[in-house]
Design brief:
175 residues; 70% helix; single chain; Arc Repressor Mutant, subunit A
Length: 175
Amino acid sequence: MDYKHEQLVDMDVPMAKNGDGEAFGRLIHKNKHSMYRIAKSILKNEYDAEDAIGAAILHAYAKIYSLRKNENFSHWLLKILINECYAIIRKRTKEIYTSEFIAAQGTYEDKHNDDELTNSLNYLEDDQKIVVILFYYEDMSLKDISKTLHVPEGTVKSRLYRAKGKLRDILGNSI
């Protein structure tokens, strides 16, 4: 992304806070791959991931005026998404499934799905998986992950350390 485009994106946050729907749409477009990857990794179900993303977008649009720092938009949006994912998980534990669902065709495919490391993430606990995704795939700092997940930075470090150990066991010494 070039500097001129980056400036445009930065201008979109205040515009979106003032009710500009197109600016909000550009912000969502910029974050759509991260949102999908995170939702799919937490929920492991295409339908639920799409539901969580839709709910997160609606929630963010309704509450964008409450965003304190414009530069924190992406972290704020991802935190809303993570909360929506966990709400779906809580709801799912209360439901009784009576039939199988047919997988959606023509939906967005994560380009990382074939990666052996990405597939290995499914063997991690959810709290470890989300830290790995945010750190390695979204290039978030430990401090930013700590703020996004509302946990101490030391907790983020220990989850990342444990996750890397488990991944090393799963994949051998190839990581």
